[in-house]
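Progress against Task 2.4 (sequence-to-structure conversion) is shown through the following example record, which the project officer requested during the mid-term review.
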Amino acid sequence: MYVKKGIILLNILHNRHAAQTETRLKQIQQVAIQNDNLFAELMETVKYCSLGQITNALFEVGGQYRGNM
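Structure tokens generated for the chain above:
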């Protein structure tokens, strides 16, 4: 039951913020590449993107692990 509700909420998040998702993910990638304050950007990005989307975006630019993340 909890899993089903979580998937529904995830779909709502993705649908509600579909227009902002690509922009927010590209922004967090740029912050990571420039080694800027990633925490502040994460706090903004989580309003629009799921943890999975953020993780995949950061993995694309930083590999599996980077010390400043």
